[in-house]
Amino acid sequence: MKEKEKIEMKYCEEAKDEKKNNNSDGDVLSAVLEHVGDMGRYQKLLFLAMMPFGFFFAFVYFVQMFIAATPQRHWCRVPEMEHLDIDLRRNLTTVQVGSEWDRCLTYSANWSNVLETMTAPHPSTPTQRCEHGWEFELGDIPYHTVVSERGWVCEYAGFGPLAQAVFFAGSFVGGLFFGWLADTFGRVPALVGTNLIGCVGGVASIFTTGLWDFAFCRFLVGMSYDSCFMMMYILVLEYVGPRHRTWVANMSIALYFGGGCLVLPWLAVWIGDWRTLLLATSLPMLIAIGAPFVVPESARWLSSRGRVNEAVKVLRRFERVNGTKIPQDVMDEFVVSSSKSRQSSESIKALFRSGPLRNMMLYMVVVYMGCAIIFDGLVRMSEGLGLDFFITFTLTSATEIPSVTLLALILDRWGRRMLTVAPLTIAGSLTLIAAAVPKGIPQVTLAIMSRFCVNMAYNAAIQWSTELLPTPVRASGSSLIHVSGYVATVVSPFIVYSVRTSIKP
């Protein structure tokens, strides 16, 4: 907490006209919240209310991996052979390359003669690209995806990574926009807005027919990543006492985001259709419309905006639900203090006005970019680690709960800085080693270990940055830090794609 005190002190020194008001408001509100209760019934209800948003976070982030997965066993479609058994037509039409076949070439042959003799063309027969699309054997991916339906393989194999990069470009725009929206109009409107745009983009993706309309819809979905959860995360942490904050911050991600990661691959297998999967993961985001009736606006934000009566109503609601009583003199002091403060007009520029705050922001940006690119790279490599995609994704995702539980146990004792930097360094080292070992169990084992460590680093960084940022710029500051991660992850799909395509089939 020493880092927070130093940063906020310097922050207030360089904003002298607001120093007195902001600090006194925060102190008085903290006193009010002490009487409300650190972790009463309302806070527990809010912790439960985080569950759907944690699942939405996982669905928004990872669903494209399952709707755009590439079945590895595919070959050129030859219309003349379609009446034959799948194994027979593959053996007759594919160009053999060692023990495998070329997925992107077929013979330029007289297929009527091939049908008469039922003998594959001679290996010296000229070859050509697939003129009639591709056939896919639905083994490793047991359902048709947007890739198999639209033939995004071979010379079109870059379309999937491009759409994923556009998704992260949307997250860049959405992170900045919804961060500004949260600090200007409130956390709850931003929470509703980001989930609604994710829902619209997800449902609209179903009706696309090509690359660019699909990519545009993924851009819309990207605008909701990860704000669809982080707005709720920031709100709840503001109402939880310091004693319980570490557990709430980390277990909400472990249980809800981690739970969503574990459910998604098997939901995809069970549904067996990429369009229905999008509906199942997008339509529930409409639940955010009901958030204003359950989720209270930030009393700190309302106070900083001079909306004292609304802040008092929120605190009275906590009082009723928790069965506690705020002493009248404490509430009166809060009202008087808040009434004296003028409306804050801080923006992202304020984050870089003071030296310590600016240095902290730059440090967190670098750390978050490192976490993001390692985490995202590990996730996207699940398809190419040599084992079943769905099982590999599940095993790596299963590290969320134990890693974050361990973090919650030791975070307050060992500190945010150590538990961000050390696990991140270990994760990076394990990832480099994984690139040098054989595919299969050795590579998957190292990937699981690396994911365990980067989970710890990621969650420690999220809580650390949220705690250090001053209230007037907390949402926009958090969004800016997260946006830096989005910038790093834009290149991640292309890195994974280049690694996979460099290996011959």
What descriptive keywords fit this protein?
transmembrane helix; disordered N terminus; three-stranded antiparallel β-sheet; MFS_dom; 2 domains; Growth Hormone, Chain: A; 5 strands; elongated; single chain; mainly alpha; 505 residues
Give an overview of the whole structure:
The chain is mostly helical and 505 residues long. The chain folds into 2 domains: 2-71 and 158-501, MFS general substrate transporter like domains (Growth Hormone, Chain: A, Up-down Bundle); 74-136, no CATH class. Helices cover 70% and strands 4% of the residues. It has helices at 2-13, 16-36, 41-67, 86-93, 111-117, 146-150, 159-185, 187-205, 211-223, 227-239, 242-271, 274-282, 291-294, 299-304, 308-322, 328-340, 355-380, 389-397, 400-414, 416-434, 441-468, 474-501, and strands at 74-76, 94-97, 100-107, 127-129, 134-136. The strands form 2 sheets. It has a 3-stranded antiparallel sheet. The protein has a two-stranded antiparallel ribbon with strand order 1-5. A hairpin with a 2-residue loop joins strand 2 (94-97) and strand 3. The chain is elongated, with a radius of gyration of 26 Å. It starts with a helix and ends with a helix. The relative contact order is 0.15. Mean pLDDT is 84; it is low at 1-5 and 7-25.
